[in-house]
Structures are given as C-alpha cells and as structure tokens.
Amino acid sequence: MAPTDDQDELFEVVDENDRPTGPRTRAACHADPTLIHRSVWVLVGTPDGMLYQRRGLGKDSNPGAWDLACAGHVTTGESYADAARRELAEEVGITDAVLVHAGTFLMRMPHETEMAAVYTTEHAGPFLVRPPEVIGLVAFAEPPSPITPSARRVLELLRR
C-alpha cells in the first residue's frame, strides 16, 4: 500500500538548540536521522481516560498502531502551538481545545530525530474519526498495545 502521507510536505529542520536551519521534505527527514525536524504531540484527557488514535493503514510509519490522540509534524513557518491546533482539528475534530505546553525535548529514534513539543488538554468530545489518517479513537485508562515507539517515549517523559 502506498503511503497516504505527502512525501513532498516541507518540515522545519532545526539544530539541537531548536534553531531553524531550513526546510526539508518529509521523505528526506524520515530517511535521515541527522535531520532534526519539529513535531507536536497532544495528550487528550477525557472522562473515560486518555484518548488514543489508531493510525491509518497507509501511514508511512507505524501503520495500524495506537498513538496518542494527536501527533504530527510542524510545517515550515508554523509554530508548535499552531501545528498542535491544526493536527487536533485534522485528526480528532477538536477545534476549541485549551492547550497546556508540557515541554519540548529532543527525541532520537532509529529512523528519525524530532524536536518534540508536547501539549495536554482536557476534552469530553465529541471526537471525529478522520480516515484515512486515523481509523479509530478510544479512551483507555492504560496505554493500548501495540503503541508507537515515539508515543511510548512521550509518555515516559511525562511520567518523569
């Protein structure tokens, strides 16, 4: 199955101090772990537990795995907060969230390196499943399995 992600989408590449060094494509960033690119993660607390999404089967990384409610990349010229709001609307249909910045950290993975900004919010829904990017949304008391390695890292960071 061909990836549903636009491989020519431009990401903001940064140095280890989060200073922009220029745009690069999604394909380049995901093929070269020396290209640090910005990402956002939003944890959504609900009355029934934390909201998780099941990634679409056409995603270019971890297709079909569980992930945090919202995760995405920051495009060139976009702020972390604007990217978090855009991704929330695109992936789960939330347009009125109050975001709390929980921190930003460098996340090194075998295939890519991200400068990851993490946000939290509380929301009771309703939530919208947005195929093909997201194929399921469920609130769980504990993280589901299999969960993406990067989501596991974000959760570990927040536990500290």
Per DSSP, what share of the residues sits in E-state strands of 2 or more residues? 35-45%
Unreliable spans: none
User: Can you name the CATH architecture?
Assistant: Alpha-Beta Complex
Radius of gyration: 15 Å
CATH homology superfamily:
Nucleoside Triphosphate Pyrophosphohydrolase
How far do the termini sit from each other?
38 Å
Give the helix proportion (percent range): 10-25%
Taken from the alpha-carbon principal axes, the silhouette is globular
Q: How many strands appear in the DSSP assignment?
A: 9
Classify the secondary structure makeup into a structural class: alpha+beta
Order of helices and strands: EEHEEEEHEEEH
Classified by CATH, the class is: Alpha Beta
How would a crystallographer describe the biggest sheet?
9 strands, mixed
Number of domains: 1
The count of helical stretches stands at 3
Query: What is the average per-residue confidence, as pLDDT, rounded to a whole number?
Result: 93
